[in-house]
Amino acid sequence: MAGAGTAPPLVTDVDGTLTDDELRLDPRMGPALRAWDGPVVLATGKVLPFPIALANYLGLERTVIAENGGVTFVEATDDLRVHGDREAAQAVADAYVEAGYDLGWGVADLPNRWRETEVIAARDRPLEPLRDLAAEHGLEVVDTQYAYHVKSPTMTKGKGLETVADALGYEPTEFVAVGDSTNDVSTFERAGTAIAVANADDAALAAADHVTDDTFADGFLEALDRVDAGEW
Ligand SMILES: O=C(O)COP(=O)(O)O
Ligand SMILES: [Mg+2]
């Protein structure tokens, strides 16, 4: 890894980037991220408690973008922001259920339980009616490869990066971004260096400056190495 304080700030996706294809966290991520000699921002579609817990257990400062930019937290400045509300997305979910569908998470509905600015549906649920209802409410459906997110188009991980970078005293263009999906494109557009892991979807591949040879966590470690080596 880079020497003292010499690494650029890093913003990384979680699912599909720090995990394997079944969303199991790769055990090498803790050592690799702790050794990164610059700020590390976890940017995910998951609700805030996920990246907060992940940062805790990885031994990282808790600087996170959750809900695809709907919620941001910067530990250094104690700055928690909720950039919207769930009302419109909930109306879409209610109409979807009213039409005879369900979100696909069972009665406990854990993926939505702590969600403040979006609602998500499982990817084995019918997409078209969800898209139609979202459009009626001025919302979009984003497929992260792991869930359908019903959200406002104004909230993105990239907008979240602007908030977090400002709090940390950086420009978004100083960041290296790594990710795997459509919901990382907004981050890729703002970061100075955008890297897609090889398992990325077409939108992320097209928006990236570089694509790793390896997939998933192997690809992520390759990205860190190539940035560290000055190659990217
Ligand atoms: O929450 C999701 O659907 C995907 O999460 P991710 O943004 O960390 O890949
Ligand atoms: Mg992802």
TrEMBL record:
What InterPro entries does the database record attribute to this sequence? Answer: HAD-like_sf (IPR036412), HAD_sf (IPR023214), PGPase (IPR006382)
Instruction: Give a GO cellular-component term.
Output: cytosol
Q: Which cofactor does it need?
A: Mg(2+)
Keywords, A to Z, come to: Carbohydrate metabolism, Hydrolase, Magnesium, Metal-binding
**What does it catalyze?**
2-phosphoglycolate + H2O = glycolate + phosphate
Task: Give the Gene Ontology MF terms in alphabetical order.
Answer: magnesium ion binding; phosphoglycolate phosphatase activity
UniProt binding sites for substrate? 157
Quote the function comment for this protein: Catalyzes the dephosphorylation of 2-phosphoglycolate.
Name-wise, this protein is Phosphoglycolate phosphatase
Organism per entry: Halorhabdus tiamatea SARL4B
